[in-house]
Amino acid sequence: MYNSFISGTGSYLPEKILSNKDLEDLVETNDQWITERTGIKTRHLASDSEATSDLAYHASQKAIQAADLKPTDIEMIILATVTPDQMMPSTACVVQERLGCKDVMAFDLTAACSGFLYALTIADQFIKAGTHKHILVIGAEALSRIINFKDRETCILFGDGAGAAVLSRAEQNSKSQVVSHHMRADGKLGHLLTLSAGGSRKPITHEILDNDDQYVEMKGREIFKYAIRTMASCCNHVLDSNKLNMNEIDWLIPHQANLRIIDAMAKQLNFPMEKIVVNLDHTGNTSAATIPIALDEAVREGKIQRGQNVLLTAFGAGLTSGSLLMRY
Ligand code: ACO
Q1: Number of Cβ within a 10 Å radius of residue 48
Q2: From the centroid of its chain, how far is CA 89?
Q3: What is the DSSP string of 207-246?
Q4: Which of 36, 143, 149, 153 is the pocket-test mutation for ligand 1 (most atoms within 8 Å of CB)?
Q5: Domain boundaries, the chain
């Protein structure tokens, strides 16, 4: 049995920035409301010529470089997204070709904002099985393509970006390793966050477009409560199964959806905000990309050090959720 560890991380945010002030010109809202209710000040938007694979490519290049590897060393690519370049081929295959990887297994994974943690969990199993040594795990989104910029309840929340990590086989006795994970999905609550058009049940028609049904719809208040409960519960589950408590965690990286969700979760876990990585003020919610972007920024800023206990936790459409504990 082998262990896996994160050997390199990378992230990419597109150049264009949309501020709360800019949003005031699009919908009836204001900087103060958005800041107080969400903690978000600015978010990045992909340009018209940038697709999810472009963001993913830049983040992946940095992660592979940080791991001191070449694209040809990568043995599998898992790309978590709800905004693929197109239905097929998968965005993972597009990235594989662009990076110049070998003809290794590559696929997209849909678990919305929990996607990166789901993908890490899968990659960990392949490394543990001993069949793979280096797996590229990506969370990448161009959410601005599926957001209705006339709906003030959703358009203020989301941004575009990508984060990536290389999960590699750990040396025997290495301090750095993925310790444990616990993923969930509760389909009964799927109706709280949907993008129902564009699939096999409701293909795009003129009528769909006339009704703006091609965009994300969300019951924000219900998701808010669920998010706090499920992230705290997933964290406790992972800690309990490893006989650890929150005092032994050096850093917590939650899905970056709303500062008030993070704050309430921290209170439930009795965990200090100073040890929580928060970057949503300048990224907004980038769905599957929030955790790998926050992880990469914290690593590059020198906050997260090798050997520290890092707990990741997420929730998203599905509704999916989960926590993953690693010694970085
Ligand atoms: N600007 C100004 N006022 C607004 C805005 C806005 N952008 N949006 C809503 N309001 C108004 C509402 O109409 C309402 O007015 P009313 O009292 O006259 O009816 C008032 O503000 C309060 O609205 P609430 O919905 O109760 O506001 P709340 O404090 O719940 O905040 C928010 C809304 C930010 C959406 C919050 O519920 C939230 O963050 N929920 C979680 C959303 C989330 O995380 N989604 C993604 C999860 S999964 C994934 O990441 C893909």
Answers
A1: 7
A2: 21
A3: HHHHTTTTS-EE-HHHHHHHHHHHHHHHHHHHHHHTT--G
A4: 153
A5: 4-169, 177-327
C-alpha to C-alpha distance for 248 and 326, rounded to whole angstroms: 12
Q: CB-hemisphere CA count at 13 Å for 188?
A: 3
What is the pTM assigned to this prediction? 0.97
From the list 3, 20, 285, 309, the catalytic residue is 285
- Domain 4-169: which topology? Peroxisomal Thiolase; Chain A, domain 1 (3.40.47)
40 neighbors 286 (Cβ within 8 angstroms): no
Helical ranges in 67-169 per DSSP H: 91-99, 115-129, 152-155
Alpha helices, DSSP H, located in the chain: 20-24, 31-38, 52-66, 91-99, 115-129, 152-155, 206-210, 220-241, 259-269, 280-283, 290-300
pLDDT digits (tens, 9 = 90+) for 29-63: 999 999 999 999 999 999 999 999 999 999 999 99
8 lines ligand 1 (CB under 6 A): no
Domain at 177-327, CATH homologous superfamily: Thiolase/Chalcone synthase (3.40.47.10)
CA distance 321 to 243: 21
- At residue 1, the pLDDT reads 86
Q: Is 93 a catalytic residue?
A: no
Q: Encode pLDDT of 258-306 as tens digits.
A: 999 999 999 999 999 999 999 999 999 999 999 999 999 999 999 999 9
Residue whose CB lies within 8 A of the most ligand 1 atoms, among 221, 225, 259, 290, for a mutation test: 221
